[in-house]
Amino acid sequence: MKKVIVLSFVLCLLFSCKEEASKNLKIEKAFYFWKGNSALQQEGANGLNKLGVKKLYVKLFEVDYNEVQGNFPYEKNRLSTYELEKLDSVQVVPTVFIRNGIFSYNDKKSLDKLADNIVFLIDKYHKEDYGNKIIYDYNEIQIDCDWTKSTKENYFYLLKKIKELSGKQLSCTLRLYPYKYPDIMGVPPVDKAMLMCYNLIQPLTNKGQNSILDISELKKYLNERTTYPVHLDVALPVFYWSQWYQNNRFEQLVPLTEKEVQGFAKNIKPLWYQVIKDTSINYNVYLKAGDQIKCETITMPMLQEAMEIIRKNVVLDGTTTLSFFDLNEGTFKQFSYEEYTSLYESFTK
Length: 349
Prior knowledge:
The chain is an alpha/beta fold. 34% of the residues lie in helices and 27% in strands. Helix 4 packs across helix 5.
C-alpha cells in the first residue's frame, strides 16, 4: 500500500513539474526569410507586424566549394534600410547555409580563413552598400548545415572559430537524427540550436509520403521525453511545393498549391494528381495531359499534431523561439493571421 502511495506521489510530482515548465515557457515569435535575391514584400512585412513577430532569420548567403575557387559564397541576399522600415522592431539574425560537402576539402588552416570570411561578409551585409551606415544591429549568428558523423570534427571546429571571431551568440540548425543520436553525431559547440522539424524524408525517394512533414516519421525521432545538452528552439514548415513528373521521370518543382493543381488535374491517389489538359505555368513550364504531379503541402491539423508531439517529447526551457519556415509570397495565403496566432499561443498550453 505504501509503495502505491509513493508511486502516486511521484507521478503527481512529475506531471506537476511538467505543467509548471509549460506555464513558465515563453515563446518568441519568429520566421525564416530564405529565398535568395529577393526583397521583403509589403504583404509579408504587414503579416509579421500584425502577428507581433520580433525575430527574422535572414539567409545572407550559402557556402560551397570547388577546385578553382575553393570555398565561395553564392546566392547572396541582404536587407535594405527601406525593407526594414516596413517592420516594427524586428531583430534580424544573419543566417548562413554551408554545404556539408565542403568539409571533405578543408583542413583547419583553410577553415580558419573561411570563418574569417564568413564573419567579414556578415558584417559587410549589415551595412549599406555605400559607406558604413548600419542597416540593423545583430547579436546572434546562425549557421545552417546538415553535418554528418564524418564531417562533425571540421564543422564543430568552424563553429568555434566563427564564435571566437564574431563575439556574437552562435546558434545552428539541428536535424532530428543528430538530435536523437548525440552520442553518434556529437553536440555542436553553440549557445543554442534550432530543432528543424521538417524535411524528414528525401523528396524523390518516398513517393507515398509527404517529404516536407510526415507525422509518422516525426514520431520515430520524437518518441520519448529527452533533454538535449544545448538550449533548443523549434522550427516548423509552412511552405508547399509540387513535384512535376513526365513519363515517370522527375522534371522539376513547380510553385503550385494543391488547389491550383486541382484546376487542371485529377486526384489519382493520396498526394498525386494526373494532368487532364495541357497547361502552361508562367509561360516557362508546359505540363502535358498525362503528366503527374505530387502535391506536398502543410495543413493546420498536421502542424497541431506535430506541435503536440514536440511539447510532449522535447524538453524546452526559458524563452523558446518558435519559427516558421519560411516567409514568402504564399505565407499568408496558406494560413490566416488568426491561425498563425493560435499556433504560437497553443505551443505553451
